Amino acid sequence: MKSTTPPPLHLVQSQDLPRGISSVRALPDAELAALWDSIVVEDGIKERLLAQAVLNYTLRPKVARSVLPMHGVILLVGPPGTGKTSLAKGLASTVAALMKGAKFRLVEVDPHALTSSAMGKTQRAVGELFSQSIAEQAVNGPTIVLLDEVETLAADRTRMSLEANPVDIHRATDAVLVQLDALAASHPQLLFLATSNFPLAIDQAFTSRCDLVIEVPLPGAQAARQILHQCLRSVGETFPSIAKLADSRDLDRVAEAAAGLDGRTLRKLIVNAMALRKETALDPNKLTLADLEAAARNAQSSRAAAKGGHQ
Ligand SMILES: Nc1ncnc2c1ncn2[C@@H]1O[C@H](COP(=O)(O)OP(=O)(O)OP(=O)(O)O)[C@@H](O)[C@H]1O
Ligand SMILES: [Mg+2]
Question: Residue 88: nearest ligand to its CA?
Fold first, then answer.
């Protein structure tokens, strides 16, 4: 008889993973824990995410679904670059660290590997991912599954255009819902962390199955300052003059100019600022707050132009 014992995680190669799963790793994980700390959001967001995820392991397995119909799904929505994926990965590690004793795993799903132009194939691939690949992972112990860009898997069936196989996508959404119900009933140690930039594109039947839907907003001026400060400090470990910028009072001016930009753009601002002049590119220690302010203004103009283009 064929052995069903899975290989140790460090021996799992990505090409050996089933279709639709891009990685499996043991939790907690130091790199992911650092991600959790690196995201600046109001404390309430992290606290609620963590409490909901912990309840999945303390409450859900012990109370009948007829009493508390938990599905083990948390959805993070918000504009691009606000830290949703980082928070989801960091949350997985933080929950595992809190729930001492159990061997948690993080399974990352790549939804794009499942969509196919051939009629009926997407539905089958999605069905297999949940009913076989994820279920097999879940029997190994507490499992957290990252469903990034979930709108591609659970597309709103009422909004489908008639292009590109709407029937197939419709059925794929049906398959996700059926499988979520089945897994929720059979695997209470399974937790899905889903993210999306397009909450309106997600099927409402999926959203209604979520135990928590949390909005991750764009950083405000205070958070923008904190992100810039943290980033300058880290770069300053290699380029000492940059650490001094982090502690300057004038960083407030840069933060004001950067208010409304997303976290990804804020981190990139430092590189963009260095790329404004040949001198700073040759010697990053020459970076000034004026460079950063100019980069912030450029980013605001690009953002306004992109918005205008989408209207
Ligand atoms: N609030 C934040 N605080 C600190 N850094 C942030 C924040 N938001 C985003 N970042 C940084 O921006 C980068 C992108 O973050 P991430 O991929 O988690 O965003 P996302 O919301 O998932 O984006 P997308 O919607 O485009 O997938 C990361 O390097 C992250 O550290
Ligand atoms: Mg993301």
Answer: 1
**Which residue puts its alpha carbon closest to atom 29 of ligand 1?**
264
pLDDT in tens, 124-137: 888 999 999 999 99
Q: What is the pLDDT of residues 52-91, one digit of tens each?
A: 999 999 999 999 999 999 999 999 999 999 999 999 999 9
What residues are neighbours of ligand 2 (ion), with CB under 5 Å?
Answer: 85
Same domain, 207 and 268: no
Domain of residue 28 covers: 9-215
Q: pLDDT digits over 173-192, tens only?
A: 898 999 999 999 999 999 99
Ligand 2 centre and the CA of 149: distance in Å?
7
CATH at residue 159: 3.40.50.300
Q: In terms of DSSP bridges, do strands 104-109 and 21-27 run parallel, antiparallel, or are they unpaired? A: antiparallel
